[in-house]
Give the backbone structure.
Amino acid sequence: MDLGIRGKTAIVNGGSAGMGRGSALALANEGVNLYISARSQERLENTCRELAEVSGSKVTPIVADHSTPEGREAILSACPEPDILVTNCSPPPFTGDYKTVAREDWMTNLEVTLLSPVEFMKQVVPGMVERGWGRVVNIGTGAAKFPAEVRILSGPPRAALVNYSVAVAKAVARHNVMINNVLPGMHHTAAIEDRYKAAAKAHGTSYEEEVQKFIDEWRIPANKFGDSEDFGAFVALFCSEQAAYVTGQSLVIDGGITNATF
Ligand SMILES: NC(=O)c1ccc[n+]([C@@H]2O[C@H](COP(=O)([O-])OP(=O)(O)OC[C@H]3O[C@@H](n4cnc5c(N)ncnc54)[C@H](OP(=O)(O)O)[C@@H]3O)[C@@H](O)[C@H]2O)c1
C-alpha cells in the first residue's frame, strides 16, 4: 500500500534506535525525507546511513538532546517546516516503591517525556495548519492507559501528553493536521536489550530467558515481545495520506497484554 507521503519531510526525535528507528525506517521506505535526532553521534550517524542506503531517501542526522531548548533549536533550525513530527525518547527508569520517586526524577522525566513533545507541537503544528497538511505521532507507553507502580515515571507524563495532544488534535483537525499516539507494550529495542542482558548477566541466565520470565509474569497473550520495525509500520500509517480522518487516537500495541474491551 502506498501511504501517499513520498517527498514529505519528517522530524523523528529519538530515531537512532528502538521504535524511533523502526518508525524512521518505515517513513524512509515511503520516500519521506528525514531529520533524525539523538544524543549519541556514532549510533545516530550509523542509523542514518543505513536507512538512506536501504530506502534511497534523504536522511539527515541531528545530534541533539530534544529535551533541552538548545537541542530543540538545533533540530528546528535544520528542519523548520516538517510535514510530519514523530516524538520519542528512551524509556524512563523503572521505579520501585512510589514513595521513593524524588521530585528531581519527576522534573527530569517530565522534560523529556512531556514538555519536549509539547514544545515541538507548539513550534511545528501552526505551520502545518497554514500549509493545510500535517501529521504528528507521539510514541508513548501502554502504561499511560494501564498504570503500574513500576512505570510511575513513564505512564503519568504520557497520560498527560495524550490528554494534551487530543485537545490540540481537536483544535486543528479541520486543517488536515492529524495528531495521534501509539502506546507500546514490550518490544525488542536497544533499551530493552540493555535491561534484560544486564538482568541475564546478574542472574546467570540468557536474554531470552529473562524476556520469557517477563512474558510469563505479565501473561502476554502473544507469548513474545514485539518487533520495533512492525511497530514503526503503524507509526507510518498514522503519518499517511489515508490517516486524514483519524485523530486524537491512542493505539495500544502490546501483544494483547491489556484486557479492556475498547
Ligand atoms: N521498548 C519497550 O518495550 C517499551 C515499552 C513501553 C514503552 N516504551 C516507550 O517507547 C519509547 C521508545 O523506547 P525504546 O525502547 O525504543 O527506546 P531506545 O531503544 O532507548 O531508543 C530511544 C531512542 O531515542 C533517543 N533518545 C533518547 N533520549 C533522547 C533525547 N533526550 N534527545 C534525543 N534523542 C533521544 C535514543 O538515542 P540516544 O540515547 O543516543 O539519545 C534512541 O535513538 C519510550 O518512550 C518508552 O518509554 C518502550
User: Anything to note?
Assistant: The radius of gyration is 18 Å. The chain is about 45% helix and 15% strand. The chain has two domains: 9-186+227-253, 188-224. Residues 188-224 form one domain.
